[in-house]
Known about the structure:
The chain is of the alpha/beta class.
Amino acid sequence: MKTKTYFISDLHLGAGYITDPRGHENAIAEWLRSIAPEARTLYLLGDVMDYWFEYRSVVPRGHVRFLGALAELADSGTEIVWLKGNHDIWLFDYLRDEIGLKVVDGVIDTMIDGRRFVMEHGDGVGEPRLGYRIMRGFFRNRFAQWLYAGIHPRWTVGFALAWSKHSRLRGRQMPDPGRLPANDVMIRFANDYVGRNGQVDYFVFGHRHVPVDMELDSGARLIVLGECFKKMSYGVWNGAFFELKRIKSQAYAPN
């Protein structure tokens, strides 16, 4: 019986810094098939692909095993909700229509088994850097997307993957153990959200690549799912409590 809700983010499928991309993809596909008997809903909280752009009549190369397993999961009756991240912004209607999943850009505020969950990838919750906010808005501009689609993929794909690898190597890292400082933008977002919209039971984010599970002053729990290419972490709600877990697979042994 499908009674559980699963949450996963930051798989970064196809990233240049993943040393065993086939093993990584196989491990994710294996996990998707393993949760099928119990998964009522699967939330993909962004950056599932390291780069993804949907053209009107061209399918991006790769990710066949992952997409096949995702389609099998949807066909088994699991609801799949994909929140856009900063690496899979350009997710439009192809996977929505072919697989039968729901695509969301922004915040989800929903009830699950009588608990209120608020979810977002994490890059859109109070990011303080002006340059990043401008870039984020530009990437979501429909005219800019139309112009970008006119560039041949031989140029765009290589550039995007190289940029991603560079950003990963120089990006800000949060040390373990994963606990956010009191002035963190995610905590400020959560506190402001409760103040404006009432009590929340769980805030769930991705983006940070380090698992976090902490209680806020409001009584809400703030969850950061971590990542699923090295730590291989994900979250599961069983109807009574939320737990962070890790995927263990014979197919993939991350460095």
